[in-house]
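Handout, page 2. Input:
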Amino acid sequence: MTAVSATVPRSYTGRVVVAVSIVALAWLLWQLLDVIIVVFGAVLFATFLLTLAEPLHRRLSLPPSAALAAVVLLLLVLLVLGGWLVGEPVARQLGNLRDVLPQAFTAAAEWLGGNPVGQTLLEAWDTARVWSRAAGMAGFTLGALAGALLIVATGIFLAADPALYRRGLLRLLPPEHRQRVDDALLAAGEGLSRWLLGQGVSMLAVGVLTSLGLWLIGMPLALALGIIAAALDFVPYFGPIAAGLLIVLLAFAQGPEQALYAALLVLAIQQFESFVLVPFVQRWTVRLPPVLALIALMIFGLLFGPIGALFAVPLMVVAMILVQRLYVRDVVENNAPAAGRLPE
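Output:
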């Protein structure tokens, strides 16, 4: 009786310690959300660098460190060369874009005010008080710039020796699970690399088509708008919509007819990307179901804010691969009866 009574408190105390530890860990992770998203951004940038360095390492037989140094140097050269060749016109166009926006808003408001539906939209716009949120954009921009520099610097260090940090992470796990988790991490890295390649192709195509199309219909600031459209295309669904709305809004400065041409052009490019470019790219990259992409945008946007929405899809790509490797394949399918398994 004494042994039983002594065992129960110890068991109860152990459960309490575990529960408190889980709560404390959850609280710590919640406090470190900003750090977590910056670390993932660094991992994403490191994956980008390693993806570019891999062909140099494989085809030219360069050591990994030399291949990485060559990639970083090449990116710096391209950045400087691009700034020298097109930096001045792009900066001028972006400056003009800031000046043209108020005129475009005024022209669009006058056109919308001429019909009942437009008046309803204008009332909804005034109710939303969008301009009150714009006052904090300067501070957000400075914070984003500092975060981007931190991500770039950390990403270069991670890319210099990724195995070192992966081994350090694996040492936190029991020895019997290390190989399985290591395989899952390598698969997630490969999937993230292929996703980055596919996304880069899509962004480049959208940027080129947008600039060329706007130039053909006589829109000013075509180069700057093409760059903005390519950058926003990194965020699926909402990014292209935001870029399209900006282009159509600016087209109103030249009249409703030009806005119609711009809207048709934006719609054509988005349809080309959805039905031609994306299926082609997904043949050799990671295919993320659209519902998961939308869920990722909502979840990570709520957790991490704008930067969470920016990294939502790559975060979901990594999470999907890890769940498939560590849970679906190793736990669910291996323990399921053969008759209950889904076809490959």
